[in-house]
C-alpha cells in the first residue's frame, strides 16, 4: 500500500514580541520550524495574515542554515486569513484546505493540524476543524520555566480526542434513539472506546427496542433484562424501562392468554404511532388495521372461538341465528375449516351480543369508510397514500375499541410506550 503523504496545516501568529517586531518573527519562526522538522511533512499549508508572512521568510532561512531548502509552492503554500479575530472566517479558510487537500483530492494524504501558533481565534478554529473532520491535532510543548517554550526543548504533543468523539457519538445515539433509529446506533456504539460510558447497556437497550419494533418479544425481553438500569445514563428513563420490562415479561411469561394478547395489542398500537411520528402514514395505518383484527380475535378467544377455524357447535350453543351459521357454512373450505375475516369477526361478535360487535354495527358506515381508505393504500390493495387525518381518525377508533376490550388498556398502552431521552440533559453526567 502506498504510504500516505503528510500535509501539515499550521496557523501563523502575528509575531509580536516585547523586544522588536523582527525578534517576534524570529521567535515564531523557530517554533514553527521545530514543529516542521519533527513532523517532517511532505507539504506545509500556512494560514497566515499578510503581516505574519514575514515569519515564513525566517523559516526559509532556518532551512538554509541546515543546507536545506523550503520553497513556496514546492514545499509550502500560504493561505491568507484577512480577519484573524473572526472565528467563522478562520474556520472556513481552514475547512477549504481540508476539502481541497483531502476530501476532493484523489491523493492518499494525512492532514496533521498544529494549532500552537496563531491568534487565539485562529487556534480555536483550526482545533475545531481538526476535531470535526477527525484530523490529527498537535501542539508544541517543552520547557516553560521562563514562560514560553525554551528554544531547543521543543517536543510535539499528539492529542487523542477519543473522549470528545465518544461524547459526540453518545449525543448521536440519544438523538437516534428518540427517532427510533435503533439499528443504526449499534455501529455508533461499537465505535465508542471510553470505558466509562455504559456502551454495553446502551447496546442492549437499542437491540431490545429494535427487536420489539419487529414484534420479536422474546428477543426484546432477553436484551432488556441484561441492562443495568441503575447506570447513570438511564436515570431519566429508568421508570419507563421498568414499565417496559413488566410489559415484555407479561408477553413472554404470563400464563394469562388475555393479558399477553392485550400487551401485544398495545405494543402494536404504539408501534403504529411511532410510524406516524415518522410521517409513514400508510405503514402506520396498516399496523392499525392489524390491531383492528387482533381486537376482534382476542374477544372471540373469550368465547373459545378462533377466526381461522370457527366451531359452529359453539355458535349454536351461544344462540347464534341459524341464518348466520348457514352463511358461515357456505365459507367452509376444502380442509373443513371455516375462516372469517375482520368484518365477519365483528358481525359474529354482534351475534354473540358482545359490546364490541354492537359498537361496530352502530358505527359501521364510518368504520367501513375508514377501512375503504386503508384498502386503497399502496400498502394494501390500491395506489393511494394516506395522510395524518386518516391516521388520527383510525387511531381514535382502534383506541376506543381497545379500551372496550379491556378496562386496563390505558395501562397497557402506557407500559408498552418506548422511553425517550431528554436531549437537554448534560451528557457530561455520564
Short synopsis of the structure:
With 430 residues, the chain is an alpha/beta fold.
List the topology elements:
Blueprint: E1 5-11, H1 21-39, E2 43-48, H2 53-65, E3 76-80, H3 87-103, E4 109-114, H4 120-132, E5 136-141, E6 155-159, H5 162-178, H6 182-190, H7 199-213, H8 217-225, H9 238-253, H10 257-277, H11 281-302, H12 312-317, H13 322-329, H14 342-351, H15 355-362, H16 364-375, H17 388-405, H18 409-415
Mean pLDDT over the residues: 88
* Structural class by sheet pairing and helices: alpha/beta
Largest sheet strand order:
3-2-1-4-5-6
E-strand count: 6
**What is the number of helices?**
18
* Spatial gap, N to C terminus: 40 Å
Series of secondary-structure elements, N-terminal to C-terminal = EHEHEHEHEEHHHHHHHHHHHHHH
Radius of gyration in whole Å, from Cα? 34 Å
Tell me the number of structural domains: 2
Q: What does the main sheet amount to?
A: 6 strands, mixed
Low-pLDDT parts are: 426-430
Share of residues in strands? 5-15%
Instruction: Give the fraction of residues assigned to helices.
Output: 55-70%
User: What best-fitting shape do the alpha-carbon axes yield?
Assistant: elongated
Amino acid at each position: 500500500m502506498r504510504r500516505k503523504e503528510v500535509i501539515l496545516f499550521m496557523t501563523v501568529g502575528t509575531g509580536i514580541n516585547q523586544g522588536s517586531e523582527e525578534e517576534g518573527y524570529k521567535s515564531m519562526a523557530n517554533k514553527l520550524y521545530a514543529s516542521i522538522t519533527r513532523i517532517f511533512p511532505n507539504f506545509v499549508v500556512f494560514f497566515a495574515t499578510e503581516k505574519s508572512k514575514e515569519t515564513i521568510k525566517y523559516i526559509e532561512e532556518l532551512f538554509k542554515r541546515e543546507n536545506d531548502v523550503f520553497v513556496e509552492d514546492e514545499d509550502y503554500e500560504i493561505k491568507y486569513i484577512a480577519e484573524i479575530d473572526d472565528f467563522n472566517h478562520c474556520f472556513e479558510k481552514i475547512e477549504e484546505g481540508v476539502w481541497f487537500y483531502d476530501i476532493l483530492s484523489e491523493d492518499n494524504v494525512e492532514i496533521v493540524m498544529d494549532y500552537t501558533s496563531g491568534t487565539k481565534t485562529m487556534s480555536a478554529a483550526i482545533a475545531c476543524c481538526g476535531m470535526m473532520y477527525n484530523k490529527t491535532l498537535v501542539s508544541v510543548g517543552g520547557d516553560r520555566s521562563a514562560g514560553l517554550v525554551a528554544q531547543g526543548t521543543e517536543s510535539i504533543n499528539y492529542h487523542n480526542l477519543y473522549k470528545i468523539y465518544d461524547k459526540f457519538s453518545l449525543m448521536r445515539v440519544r438523538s437516534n434513539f428518540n427517532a427510533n433509529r435503533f439499528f443504526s446506533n449499534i455501529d455508533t456504539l461499537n465505535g465508542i472506546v471510553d470505558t466509562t460510558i455504559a456502551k454495553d447497556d446502551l447496546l442492549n437497550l437499542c437491540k431490545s427496542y429494535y427487536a420489539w419494533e419487529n414484534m420479536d418479544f422474546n428477543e426484546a425481553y432477553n436484551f432488556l433484562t441484561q441492562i443495568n438500569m441503575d447506570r447513570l445514563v438511564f436515570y431519566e428513563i429508568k421508570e419507563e424501562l421498568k414499565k417496559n420490562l413488566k410489559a415484555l415479561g407479561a408477553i413472554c411469561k404470563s400464563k394469562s392468554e388475555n393479558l399477553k394478547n392485550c400487551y401485544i395489542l398495545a405494543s402494536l398500537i404504539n408501534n403504529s404511532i411511532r410510524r406516524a411520528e415518522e410521517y409513514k402514514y400508510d405503514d402506520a395505518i396498516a399496523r392499525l388495521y392489524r390491531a383492528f383484527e387482533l381486537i376482534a380475535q382476542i374477544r372471540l378467544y373469550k368465547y373459545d372461538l378462533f377466526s381461522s377455524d370457527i366451531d359452529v357447535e359453539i355458535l349454536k350453543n351461544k344462540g347464534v341465528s341459524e341464518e348466520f351459521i348457514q352463511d358461515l357454512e357456505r365459507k367452509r373450505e376444502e380442509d373443513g375449516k371455516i375462516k372469517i375475516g375482520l368484518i365477519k369477526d365483528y358481525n359474529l361478535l354482534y351475534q354473540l351480543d358482545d359490546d364490541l360487535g354492537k359498537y361496530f354495527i352502530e358505527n359501521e358506515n364510518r368504520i367501513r369508510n375508514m377501512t375503504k381508505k386503508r384498502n386503497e393504500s399502496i400498502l394494501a390493495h390500491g395506489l393511494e397514500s394516506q395522510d395524518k387525518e386518516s391516521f388520527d381518525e383510525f387511531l381514535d377508533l382502534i383506541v376506543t375499541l381497545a379500551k372496550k376490550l379491556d378496562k386496563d388498556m390505558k395501562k397497557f398502552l402506557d407500559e408498552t410506550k418506548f422511553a425517550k431521552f431528554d436531549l437537554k440533559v448534560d451528557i457530561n453526567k455520564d
